[in-house]
Write a structure and sequence with these properties.
alpha/beta; UDP-N-acetylmuramoyl-L-alanine:D-glutamate ligase; Protein-Tyrosine Phosphatase, Chain A; 2 domains; 9-stranded mixed beta sheet; 5-stranded mixed beta sheet; 16 strands
Length: 441
């Protein structure tokens, strides 16, 4: 029965790929036919799950590259199809591979317990938990509970956890932590709209020695003594050179150079490096692999269009948006800012979160600003309240109109596009149809 299902789903996958359509539907059909098919397909691999609100796509992508560069056969859901059907589709696509070793699986937080109730995994990487898609996830403690429930189903799983995330400090099991030492980019005073700042043990408010961003940092509860755990892997000597380059040290000895910008990407690199080192990857391979990594699929990916460098930055919650807004501040050249806001299911129907984004304190002097997406007017209002001066001509009813506006921006060398997930897919489709970029699948 499974043989027929797999062959049928493989054929379906080939047909869909011709039309650049869905990367999850074959897996959905397979699971309908036999839910346990995921277990039989994944049992042949050492599975590494990567989850968390922000950073899982980049972390998984970097980790997959490091393992490949180390000589391991690796499969990876690089298109970002991170729910059970998409993950199943990945395993179906590689069912006939002769060499099977590691499967690096980016997984949606709510799908962690769904996966672990069916199949096994050797490692799980947890990046962070932020307020995200309130209509789908609820509050951060709901997300935490789902991840914990998933981990409990696999008592022998090895955990690689962000030690600067207070919510992960009391997860029981085999675990190592990664995080930041104090650095020039950390700060002492709490900033606005910070969640996760109350002790998971006694609910008292944490004291922080320093913050890295949002509620991440070195914390301690003044009431019960609960504090940041000891870090096995830590970064120091962080130097953000510009919006595309950063270097730092891991454990004071491994010098890392990366061609992706942003403080949050240091966390992503560190998370991937921590897993790789747990597996046994040598530092020299690690350094070389990270240095040659290129950002992908909306995660500060960069390409040229009409003599302008375009950067797409995926945004989906206040914490990630705040970090994304920092990236253009490292670039002093003439630039244009584009903000695309959708409210489809994958984005979250509730867009009230944009009012928690700190546009006011990350103000950037753009030469031009444009908005688009299904909630473009909400985005325009939010930006104007923050002090940006948008006019009716700056509101683009379609993505095609936005791309045309970008083309006419002769006074800009750089264009930063901040986009929610489904808006990014629409943007990429338009850009691919105009042969500016390649189709994603």
């Amino acid at each position: 029965m499974d043989y027929i299902v797999i062959k049928g789903c493989k054929l379906m996958q080939k047909v869909l790929s011709v039309f650049h359509m869905g990367s999850s539907y074959p897996g959905k059909v397979a699971l309908k036919c036999n839910k346990s098919i995921l277990k039989s397909l994944s049992d042949k691999y050492k599975v590494i799950l990567v989850t968390g609100t922000n950073g899982k796509t980049t972390t998984a992508s970097i980790l997959a590259k490091i393992l490949r560069d180390s000589g391991y056969p690796v499969i990876h859901n690089a298109t970002g199809a991170n729910m059970l059907p998409g993950i199943t589709t990945l395993f179906i696509a590689h069912e006939s591979d002769k060499e099977k070793k590691y499967a690096v699986i980016e997984i949606d937080e709510a799908n962690v317990p769904l996966y672990t109730s069916i199949a096994k995994a050797e490692y799980i990487v947890c990046t962070n938990i932020f307020k995200d898609q309130l209509d789908r996830y609820g509050e951060i403690y709901t997300t935490l509970r789902k991840i914990k429930d998933g981990i409990k189903k696999l008592p022998n799983i090895k955990m690689v956890l962000n030690g600067d995330e207070p919510l992960f400090g009391d997860i029981e099991g085999k675990k190592v932590y990664f995080g930041f030492n104090q650095n020039p980019h950390s700060y002492r005073e709490e900033k606005s709209n910070v969640e996760g700042q109350f002790c998971v043990k006694c609910r008292a408010k944490y004291d922080y020695e320093f913050y890295t961003y949002n509620h991440l940092g070195k914390y301690k509860c003044p009431k019960c003594g609960y504090k940041r755990p000891q870090l096995k892997y830590y970064v120091s000597n962080i130097n953000i050179k510009d919006d595309d380059h950063v270097n730092f040290k891991i454990n004071d000895t491994i010098f890392i150079e990366a061609n992706i910008g942003g403080l949050y990407n240091v966390y992503n690199i560190l998370a991937a490096a921590a897993v790789a080192m747990e597996i046994g990857v040598k530092p020299e391979i690690l350094k070389k692999s990270i240095k040659s990594y290129k950002a992908r699929f909306g995660r500060t990916e960069s390409f040229m269009y009409d003599n302008k460098e375009i950067k797409i930055i995926l945004v989906k919650n206040p914490a990630g948006f705040n970090q994304g807004l920092m990236i253009p501040t490292y670039n002093k050249e003439d630039k244009c800012g584009c903000f695309i806001l959708n409210d489809d299911y994958a984005d979250g129907r509730d867009i009230s979160w944009i009012w928690d984004v700190d546009f006011e304190n990350t103000f950037t002097d753009y030469n031009n600003i444009f908005v688009s997406g299904s909630r473009r007017y909400d985005m325009a209002v939010r930006l104007n309240v923050a002090g940006y001066n948008l006019h009716c001509d700056d509101i683009c009813d379609t993505i095609d109109m936005l791309v045309e506006k970008i083309k006419k921006c002769d006074n800009c060398k750089y264009v930063y596009i901040f986009s929610t997930y489904t808006a990014m897919l629409s943007l990429r489709k338009v850009l691919a149809e105009q042969n500016i970029i390649e189709h994603s699948w």
